[in-house]
Design a protein that fits this description.
CATH class of the largest domain: Alpha Beta
Strand order of the largest sheet: 2-1-3-4-5-6
Shape: elongated
Order of helices and strands: HHHEEHHEEEE
Number of domains: 2
Number of helices: 5
Oligomer: single chain
Largest sheet: 6 strands, mixed
CATH architecture of the largest domain: Roll
Number of strands: 6
Low-confidence stretches: 13-33, 82-87
CATH topology of the largest domain: Nuclear Transport Factor 2, Chain: A
Structural class: alpha+beta
């Protein structure tokens, strides 16, 4: 039997000497041939994630920093609007303070805590300070006894008598006092600033710096100070020839009469 030679090569066999040509377009060869291509892509994805996270964090920081700033701006604008409203003789703007509930029928002398506080008047003239006890006014100028009566009226909440302590001139620049509750006033300090006499009118004008605190302040008499705080005021007091003493002005700053 005659043998025949099979000259066909298996389809999957290629000689090592055969030439192989890769048909690629310019600029894409590196992408197909470099083993680090996938690594670069992953790095770009990580960078994008980090940038997104940083942007979100920045937004959060700006938000939390911006809210208080916006609130402060709102409060500032509201305060400026309220400054146009006069709330008392001692404050030309509304000040947000917390006060105790007012009890118009209260007898402050029944409050043991208040009665244990210093309720005497500390009077300073020059370098000397004197503590004045009840009704001990004979050695001082007439306005000191006047101040004792004045504070007693305020402490007991006798608002209907309050306006009687002032001159007619006072009400040219100040309103009549409205109703106020009893005031637990203590640590009263009166400092003599000046004294002048007019031969023409036979009047003596005094200026005093007056400070005091209010225990459990209810805000009906002084709405410019908190409880147990002091904001001194300057009182201009006139003693007339017949011995009458009246307040001619109260201000937050000193001005020569």
């Amino acid at each position: 039997m005659k043998q025949t030679n099979n000259d066909k090569k298996p389809a999957d066999l290629v000689k090592t000497t055969d030439d192989i040509t890769l048909h690629t377009t310019k600029g894409t060869e590196a992408a197909h041939t470099l083993p680090g291509g996938n690594k670069n892509s992953r790095q770009k994805q990580k960078r994008a994630i980090l940038l997104t996270f940083a942007a979100m964090l920045a937004i959060v920081v700006i938000w939390y920093a911006g809210v208080p700033a916006a609130q402060s701006l709102y409060n500032y604008i509201e305060q400026k609007i309220n400054e146009k409203k006069v709330t008392s003789d001692y404050l030309d703007r509304i000040k947000s303070l917390r006060f105790y509930e007012a009890n118009y029928e209260e007898n402050v002398y029944d409050d043991k805590e208040y009665m244990n506080l210093n309720r005497y008047i500390a009077y300073t003239e020059g370098m000397d300070t004197f503590y004045i006890t009840d009704d001990d006014y004979s050695r001082y100028d007439a306005p000191i006894a006047f101040f004792a009566r004045y504070f007693k009226t305020v402490i007991e909440g006798k608002y209907e008598e309050y306006d009687s302590y002032f001159t007619e001139n006072y009400f040219k620049n100040h309103k009549n006092k409205e109703i106020f509750a009893p005031q637990k006033i203590y640590d009263i300090e009166i400092k003599h600033i000046s004294k002048s006499f007019s031969n023409e009118t036979n009047e003596t004008t005094y200026v005093y710096k007056v400070g005091y605190k209010i225990f459990k302040n209810n805000g009906t008499f002084r709405n410019d100070i908190e409880s147990d705080a002091s904001r001194p005021l300057f009182y201009t007091v006139i003693e007339y020839g017949d011995g009458t003493v009246l307040i001619d002005n109260i201000s937050v700053s000193f001005s020569s009469p």
